[in-house]
Write a structure and sequence with these properties.
It is a single chain. By secondary structure, the chain is an all-alpha fold. The protein is built from 2 helices and no strands. Helix 1 runs antiparallel to helix 2. The longest helix has 40 residues.
Length: 69
Amino acid sequence: MFKPTRRVLAATAFCFGLAFSLSAVATACEDCYRNCLVERSACRAAGTPSEQCLAAYAECRRLCNCRLP
């Protein structure tokens, strides 16, 4: 029967911790991007020219500082 060593347990704990932290980052990015989309919709609803809203949207997404598409 396999008896896990401390090294195996430590590696497993590290992997779970890494997975949880990456999940938290992805959620924060998604929330930021969603807020940018809401701002863009409000911009367009206010009658602002499309080019200006698109530029503001691109800047908002850049400020999210995420590497997700």
